[in-house]
Amino acid sequence: MQTTLKLFLCLVLLITVSCNKAKHQTLAEHTNEQHWSYEGETAPIHWAEIEKNSDCNGHHQSPINIIHKDVDSVRINNDLKVLYNPSTLIKEVENNGHSIQFDFEQGDSINYKGKTFYLKQIHFHEPSEHRINGMIYPIEMHLVHASKKGELAVLAVLGEEGEESQLFEFFESFLPLENGAVKDIHQKIDLSSLFLEDKHYYSYGGSLTTPPCSENVNWIVFKEPIVLSVEEVLKLKNNMPINNYRNEQALNGRIVNYHY
């Protein structure tokens, strides 16, 4: 009788351990499945649900649709100084599963409203995330800068199809790149060819357009697009998720300034 009881208790313990293990595996698998993406149940519309500790349901989110007639127009002053030089080095390129991202070594920077922001990385969205008067562009390039205090300033450059771009030819010379792959570069790049200091731009306070959607971003969206070829657009597109853009977010009373 005592032996039978011991066997019964051992069986119960074994079943309990197995069930708990299976439960934890199921929870882990479920958690892995819930990583944000651009489609299905983990698409942008669900980010606030699956990214619990994020700002994705905040009131100062990005991107936005910029309606030109509603902006506050101001003369271009010294708010933005683009301090790019030809000796800056690209450190590496990565396919992070969400975009193609080029990371930079310290060199290029901008001065915005009296603060210095250092260029950290460039990545791409197809089609564009920001809209101007409802117009969606084939591509949007984000040049992400950070201050020493962790504040962010992102230059958003829209792209339209036309002539071939030498800059994009250089970027794409390191492609294709498989999902998760990283490639060392350590080569010079001259971003002054973008001529950003000559362009009109919109500015507003917003967020990252990917989780955690942090609302500490100074957005500078250039009105005039750059030009690149259809082939260059498609090559980038083939190395990224289809439609890797976030949907338009509500302005919620924010002021958009137009610098001309």
Shape: globular
Helix residue percentage: 10-25%
Question: Which percent range describes the beta-strand content?
Answer: 25-35%
**The top level CATH class name:** Alpha Beta
What is the gyration radius calculated from CA atoms?
A: 23 Å
Strand segment tally: 15
Number of domains: 1
Sheet/helix structural class: alpha+beta
Number of helices: 4
Distance between the termini: 92 Å
Extract low-pLDDT stretches.
4-32
Task: Draw up the topology in text.
Elements: H1 2-33, H2 47-50, E1 65-66, E2 72-74, E3 80-83, E4 89-95, E5 100-104, E6 109-112, E7 115-125, E8 131-132, E9 139-146, E10 152-161, H3 166-172, E11 182-188, E12 201-206, E13 217-222, E14 226-228, H4 230-237, E15 257-259
Parallel strand pairs: 1-8, 2-15, 10-13, 10-14
Antiparallel strand pairs: 3-6, 4-5, 4-11, 5-7, 6-7, 7-9, 9-10, 12-13, 12-15
Signal peptide: 1-22
Cofactor: Zn(2+)
Pfam families: Carb_anhydrase
Give keywords.
single chain; 260 residues; alpha+beta; Carbonic Anhydrase II; 13-stranded mixed β-sheet; two-stranded parallel sheet; 15 strands
Explain this structure.
- The chain is of the alpha+beta class and 260 residues long.
- It has one domain (58-259): Carbonic Anhydrase II (Roll).
- The chain has helices spanning 2-33, 47-50, 166-172, 230-237; strands spanning 65-66, 72-74, 80-83, 89-95, 100-104, 109-112, 115-125, 131-132, 139-146, 152-161, 182-188, 201-206, 217-222, 226-228, 257-259.
- The strands form two sheets. Strands 2, 3, 4, 5, 6, 7, 9, 10, 11, 12, 13, 14 and 15 form a 13-stranded mixed β-sheet that branches. It has a two-stranded parallel ribbon with strand order 1-8.
- The protein is globular.
- Mean pLDDT is 89; it is low at 4-32.
